Amino acid sequence: MYLFPTDESGNTGWNLDSPDQPRHFLVAIGVHEDKTREVDRILFRIALDYFPREARNSDFEFHGGDIYRGEGYFNALSPADRLQIYNRIIQVVLDFELPVFIEGIDKQKLKASSTNPAHPYNLTFLYLVERLEEFLEAQQPVANGLLFADENRERDRSIISDFDSFKEYGTALGYKPREIKRLIDTVHFVKSQDSRLIQLADCSSYLVCRYHNLIQRSLTNISAGDREMIRLRQLLESTKGGMLKRVSP
């Protein structure tokens, strides 16, 4: 069994014209059930190293945007410490050889492609489900998987409905239509502070989105922090679990 914590970044809802968030990303990390306990333990250890008391608070979490910007629990840390935390979190993906799945939507191209475009979240979710199903079928032996995601009150009911439809009828309108047999049950929405695996997906998703926004600009005058974010995103691609990435349409 694989667990697939997922999280999004760059979500501007139905606004497909945002100059600051031109792409919507949905990222999933594949964690085999045999690794989940140890991955969780290592992430908790990282938290304890910097927040020996606060890490046990019920609302403490690794949130990519907060770490990068120095907000919330991270506001008293130096930029160097925050980037070191980010580095250690991404290193967890590499150390445990976790597969990474990235689906992105170019919002302007999506808007231009249809008079009635799908919501970017629903579209990336459709493509992600196909990718994960393909991954599970390729395992030896064939594996099952369970999806869970950070709560998104705007879209969670529609995502659950979409997933039910995919299981019943397949992904006829997808990028690579297929039957959905290995992803089981439903999409479980949980609060991110309650799951360090979701937090791992959050940090990865924020990193992916930040990277894509940065490489669209001139890189001659970017900050040292952003250069480190670019390095970490490139490092993430070296995971032995493999990275599957795509920006559509």
Label this structure with key terms.
249 residues, 8 helices, 7-stranded mixed sheet, alpha/beta, 7 strands
Topology:
Blueprint: E1 2-9, E2 23-29, E3 31-32, H1 33-50, H2 64-69, H3 79-95, E4 100-106, H4 107-113, H5 120-138, E5 145-150, H6 156-169, E6 183-190, H7 196-214, H8 224-236, E7 243-248
Parallel strand pairs: 1-5, 4-7, 5-6
Antiparallel strand pairs: 1-2, 1-3, 2-4
Describe the structure.
The chain is an alpha/beta fold and 249 residues long. It is 45% helix and 18% strand. It has 8 helices and 7 strands. The protein has helices spanning 33-50, 64-69, 79-95, 107-113, 120-138, 156-169, 196-214, 224-236, and strands at 2-9, 23-29, 31-32, 100-106, 145-150, 183-190, 243-248. Strands 1, 2, 3, 4, 5, 6 and 7 form a 7-stranded mixed β-sheet that branches. Helix 3 (79-95) runs parallel beside helix 8 (224-236) and helix 7 (196-214) packs across helix 8 (224-236). The protein is globular. The mean pLDDT is 93.
